[in-house]
């Protein structure tokens, strides 16, 4: 009746790998095209920096410009630039920054990455936990005041533009009430170090951007989970469990457990996207993360830096995507052990 | 006749939908005695599943018990279940004194927990202190008694085949030896060859004294006839006939019972002789049930009085039927 | 000449992304149906009976074997759209779930219009109106109670009758009825069964009746085929099968069927 073979497993993995390569190729092509579609000259900032102090001898400017054009390959036709970029992208070479010449792109991204991860991973997870719990309680008490309140609250916070929420927080809690600082990742003048004083200072600066991300993300999770829970309320195992006398608390835990399974996928994907930073949040709070770096790269048209940030972002989203399958199998025994039905 | 186990008295249970009543159960009384298997037969929309919720007093919005009593006879005392708060029912009645094998038993167990963990959860609601090993031992014994391997309790429900899963549900439902068990269409989702095994399993529950009495709800007279002694026939939220099943098969009294019985098709020569019958028309919308006898629009023996007056159940030759023909 | 001839039909499914499984859903199945004959294909879930039906209906391509309808191989001799239309006029299906055959956005009349269009008739013509009413009456439906209604306004039995009305319009030579009454209440089933019998009496329609219900098969068929794990393990007249089953599986199956007039020992 049935035949088994290992070959299909390899086929599955290789198919998935080819799929990843093709989409990676498409993604980096877009990453190549888009910044070049922004009007402006990437060298103007750099030239301005170089000649800020000394006199601007037109001859000197021209020769520096020429060297730089060659250095970055900007003088070549676009297809040569493209081929050059693709070959390096597949080799993992992210190039040299234009605006912070001669620093390597990777050396610029590496130091800001921890800041972004420290900000985003806890806030994404916190929003996920609070949002799912609120949504589950609302769904479980469908039609009650709690449900209506939670639903409306979630709808509002998920629709508030998050940058506006960020500015609102700065305005009230920082500017007016002076409770929290509204700018930066740490106090100006301090040097990042692994001391208690610095960590406390950092946490103090951390609260507002953290809150703005948590509040704006939890509404979406709550709305999604509420629907999943309502769907689960009529499940056969719920009815049977109730008629065997299960406590409401236990029934809730059953429903919660089964209905957040799909949300785990969403969480993994959000975490995968975390490396890209929360662009606008970081700008508003002047927070030294990847998003802020990207903002700077965009405003100076630093092609290699823009490309570098996006390539790392794409890579991490891919990784998350790939891992989701395994995470899911880990938490859902039906997938882990394979359904016995339907053969 | 044995002692009473459960009694429903003049129950009216309506679904309240946008200020309208759907009269799913309308003035229904039923008595279940010790040692008895009562078959409750009806088609979709007859109110048989609502009746099972009334018997357990699982009354949840939009269902509402408008009127009537549900009594449980327990060690000489009578408990009016309809007066107990839900928490009390959960802790002391459901799963302990009354239980159910649900309609879709295939998905009745928590899918992402091992069966033993579901069992432990149930025990935790009924007892303040539990001894895990003791419970697992007891559960394993019951699983084997019912014909499921005792290792099955360490598995997830989906790892068991259909018939095994159904029997595991039966084992879980009867762990605490409930006095009264409802079997709500327990075999209709199964293949014929598994059906018979499951029916035998349910029969054994009573023979081994695991449960005192069973209400077997179904749409299939041929199935229930293998297991029940008494048959209750429901139509449009009312009981139209109650009698011993042998007598109903020999001579159905109510025209609806007749129609239902004669539309049963089994591979027997008797069926080919009598042909297949069918009842014309469709069951009424219970939001606006017809006046008088609810069956009169489909009845070929209709009298004038049937359109005006509601027939009550009356005794005819030791049987009960609600029809003006008798 | 038989209206349907199935020769050595086999269908193998491949499934599983990581571990590939090969499932032989239908194994070397052969049978035939004569004009005006009702043949039942009886099996439990997973026996391959629906796969067989889908192959005969040309919804699924077999792995090997042939299906010959009215002398033509449905996989070799149907090449053009016209051929296919001709085939659809000859072979018509009635399915288990009467709801799924309807589009809930259109009045139910549409399923009859589609049948008329298949016949090359204009559904709006007055001649068509007569045909429609005639077909409704022959399945015991009152035209004025049915026409213009939407699917949710009709009961399951009425919807299934309407599907059979379609057969009265098209007058196919062969009807493939896949569990046509298993979702219909017992008390209205008999009416639907009689409609199939009437089609056979009056139009000499052949019917392949696919069911899990041995009682129905026993009642309605001239010949019963017992299918188990993709194979036809036994065939014969209803009496032969019921009173003298030969295959172990059939014996077990018949023993398991609840009987009405005799209680199990």
Can you walk through the features of this model?
Chain A has 343 residues and is mainly α. Helix content of chain A is 75%, strand content 0%. Chain A has helices at residues 7-37, 42-50, 58-72, 78-91, 105-140, 145-159, 162-176, 196-233, 236-243, 248-259, 261-273, 279-284, 290-299, 303-331, 333-337. In chain A, helix 11 packs antiparallel against helix 14 (303-331). Residues 1-5 and 339-343 of chain A have low confidence and may be disordered. The model of chain B has no long low-confidence stretch (mean pLDDT 93). Chain B has helices at residues 48-56, 86-93, 115-126, 132-146, 162-173, 192-207, 221-224, 245-250, 255-262, 269-274, 305-308; strands at residues 4-17, 20-33, 37-41, 63-74, 77-80, 98-101, 180-184, 213-218, 230-235, 238-244, 314-316, 319-321. Chain B has 326 residues and is of the alpha/beta class. Chain B has an eight-stranded mixed sheet with strand order 6-7-8-3-9-10-12-11. A four-stranded antiparallel sheet of chain B has the order 2-1-4-5. The longest helix of chain B is centred in the middle third of the chain and has 16 residues, at 192-207. Chain B has eleven helices and twelve strands. Chain C has 265 residues and is of the alpha/beta class. Chain C has ten helices and ten strands. Chain C has helices spanning 49-56, 81-90, 109-118, 126-138, 143-146, 156-170, 186-203, 214-220, 238-243, 248-256, and strands at residues 4-15, 21-33, 38-42, 64-69, 72-73, 91-94, 174-178, 206-211, 223-228, 231-236. A six-stranded mixed sheet of chain C has the order 6-7-8-3-9-10, with helices on both faces. In chain C, helix 3 packs parallel to helix 6 (156-170), helix 4 crosses helix 6 and helix 6 (156-170) packs parallel to helix 7. Classes of the chains: A mainly alpha (343), B alpha/beta (326), C alpha/beta (265). Chains in contact: A-B, A-C, B-C. The A-C interface holds A 1-5, 7-9, 12, 343 and C 16-24, 46, 229.
Helices and strands in order, then pairings?
The complex is a heterotrimer of chains A (343), B (326) and C (265).
Chain A (H helix, E strand, L loop, with lengths): L6 H31 L4 H9 L7 H15 L5 H14 L13 H36 L4 H15 L2 H15 L19 H38 L2 H8 L4 H12 L1 H13 L5 H6 L5 H10 L3 H29 L1 H5 L6
Helix pairs in contact in A: 1-4, 1-14, 5-6, 5-8, 5-10, 5-11, 5-14, 6-8, 7-8, 8-10, 11-14, 13-14
Chain B lengths: L3 E14 L2 E14 L3 E5 L6 H9 L6 E12 L2 E4 L5 H8 L4 E4 L13 H12 L5 H15 L15 H12 L6 E5 L7 H16 L5 E6 L2 H4 L5 E6 L2 E7 H6 L4 H8 L6 H6 L30 H4 L5 E3 L2 E3 L5
Parallel strand pairs in B: 3-8, 3-9, 6-7, 7-8
Antiparallel strand pairs in B: 1-2, 1-4, 4-5, 9-10, 10-12, 11-12
Chain C lengths: L3 E12 L5 E13 L4 E5 L6 H8 L7 E6 L2 E2 L7 H10 E4 L14 H10 L7 H13 L4 H4 L9 H15 L3 E5 L7 H18 L2 E6 L2 H7 L2 E6 L2 E6 L1 H6 L4 H9 L9
Parallel strand pairs in C: 3-8, 3-9, 6-7, 7-8
Antiparallel strand pairs in C: 1-2, 1-4, 4-5, 9-10
